[in-house]
Amino acid sequence: DRLKSPLMCLTQxxxxxAWGALGxxxxxxxxxxxxxxxxxxxxxxxxxxxxxxQKLTRMITExxxxxxxxxxxxxxxxxxxxxxxxxxLAKRNNVFHALEIARAARDLLGANGITxxxxxxxxxxxxxxxxxxxxxxxxxxxxVGEYITGLAAFS
Length: 155
Prior knowledge:
5 helices; 2 strands; mainly alpha; Butyryl-CoA Dehydrogenase, subunit A, domain 3; two-stranded antiparallel ribbon
């Protein structure tokens, strides 16, 4: 019981991180989509190329899943029915996929992706740190693993 308050604080922070990672992913996607529809290469927008469309499709697919995860978690939170393992799953998932989306967006932007004019690189760097604080990806894997098996992988 001594740790109840600190653990509740961690759970709340992780809940916010899951939503924040979603926001970063959406910003990267929006930037990449805008760039793909306005950047002309070989007399046509780069968004007309198959691999660019593939990247954008993968980004929006993961963003949609992240949104649904946050929405369901928010509903459970409103009903006081969510728990720390569900929040760990959301933090783990959303930070992982947001980082992948930021990397893909930076890649889609080409050399422009490393300039200060575009935000994907900044989001990517921020997400690298978010991946670590409030519990690493691996720690959240173990938290969820124990929750679903009932067997602790660490003590």
